[in-house]
Amino acid sequence: GNSVTQMEGPVTLSEEAFLTINCTYTATGYPSLFWYVQYPGEGLQLLLKATKADDKGSNKGFEATYRKETTSFHLEKGSVQVSDSAVYFCALLTGGGNKLTFGTGTQLKVEL
Amino acid sequence: AAGVIQSPRHLIKEKRETATLKCYPIPRHDTVYWYQQGPGQDPQFLISFYEKMQSDKGSIPDRFSAQQFSDYHSELNMSSLELGDSALYFCASSSGAPQETQYFGPGTRLLVL
User: Fold this and answer.
1) Do B48 and A98 touch (CB under 8 A)?
2) Who wins on pLDDT, A5 or A93?
3) Which of A9, A39, B11, B28 is least crowded, fewest Cβ atoms below 10 Å from its Cβ?
4) For an interface test with B, which of A51, A55, A88, A99 has the most B Cβ atoms less than 10 Å from its Cβ?
């Protein structure tokens, strides 16, 4: 079956630090990969996505590259801000079904 | 841009009561999905509808039912509520094409006392 594994949190960084949140997946076929972000008390917002191998999704300074050979979709940002503090979910969607499979989420805390 | 609308945003119920959650998809989206997120958990898929027909089913209890109406809005009906049903319930919508991006609503926070 499909599964997504994310690094455990919380991840605590100082403002302007480099961020990496690891995500690996197991899936049949060729999934689309997503990062969603959930700010405190709010819903899920799509952050970025990639639909095929070697695609790079990017948005708001965040980026992630679809690596088929390592089945990974790591999230990176060069300089985090306090406002980036949130929970980040990696997710996949396969063509055979239409339900998202989420990782367990990684909480990011950015301090001044 | 228009987003997914969910109502109510917050709901408090007693055990054994019923609840109805509503979801209005993004205009021209024909597919609706329901997810349940327990405290500190990742969202779990419950059920989805495409063109008013159930398209997929996940870990939805038999006490829950859902449907999609002719205007594409969807309702999740929950009966005999239990304490463990307390969670954030998300609706998402998409255009229905394979692997199309799902856009989430703000969620309905249900508390069962």
Assistant:
1) yes
2) A5
3) B28
4) A99
